[in-house]
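lol forgot to send this yesterday, sorry. struct tokens for the thing we talked abt
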């Protein structure tokens, strides 16, 4: 279980530092209906992440073959996923100037004005982004490879969900509890995220992709 946790946590951290859900969270929390919209976005993000990692883990455990062949097959998938992460990170860096200027995420500015159900749906849908899919797939395969008991696998699924969504959950909870203290911090975070988050997120994606490839090669 320890080895699987070592593989899952960096993937969850990369998901947590993804610029799109962080930017959406900040926009929602700076809107007038931040409490209701924030809770709806939190619920959609957490539920979507938990369901996604659970499904991928279940699929990974159902792959055919004996344990050795099963591990080899998972390793091959991990190599493919890792290479895809590296490629996605490189492409994101190459397009970084457009993203940094705001053109890539301009649609986020309207998130704060949406109703509860649309915001909840966006929280769910953000788990279908290419980056989110690659990260959750790699994490699910890492859990599947370990051949853990149900309760141990559930702990890892919850751990991935908690870490991957912490940059959404923590700001929303703190803003609801302490809105006056958080508002200036959110404004500063919005400016910093617009300027730096895309490059940091892409670089981290490349490093995590290389890590996943290494895990797939070494088994």
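and heres what i got for the seq, position by position
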């Amino acid at each position: 279980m320890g080895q699987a946790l070592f593989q899952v946590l960096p993937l969850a951290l990369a998901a947590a530092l993804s610029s799109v859900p962080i930017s959406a969270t900040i926009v929602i929390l700076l809107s007038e209906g931040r409490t209701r919209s924030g809770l709806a976005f939190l619920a959609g993000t957490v539920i979507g992440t938990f369901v996604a990692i659970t499904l991928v883990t279940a699929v990974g455990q159902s792959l055919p073959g004996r344990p050795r062949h099963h591990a080899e097959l998972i390793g091959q998938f991990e190599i493919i996923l890792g290479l895809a992460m590296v490629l996605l990170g490189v492409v994101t860096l190459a397009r970084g100037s457009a993203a940094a200027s705001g053109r890539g995420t301009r649609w986020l500015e309207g998130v704060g004005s949406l109703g509860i159900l649309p915001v909840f749906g966006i929280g769910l849908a953000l788990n279908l982004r290419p980056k989110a899919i690659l990260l959750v797939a790699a994490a699910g395969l890492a859990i599947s490879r370990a051949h853990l008991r149900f309760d141990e696998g559930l702990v890892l699924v919850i751990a991935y969900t908690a870490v991957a969504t912490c940059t959404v959950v923590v700001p929303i909870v703190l803003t609801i509890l302490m809105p006056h203290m958080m508002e200036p911090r959110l404004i500063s975070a919005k400016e910093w995220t617009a300027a730096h988050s895309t490059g940091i997120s892409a670089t981290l994606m490349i490093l995590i992709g290389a890590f996943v490839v290494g895990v797939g090669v070494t088994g």
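Residues 179-218 form the longest helix (40 residues). anyway ping me if u want another try
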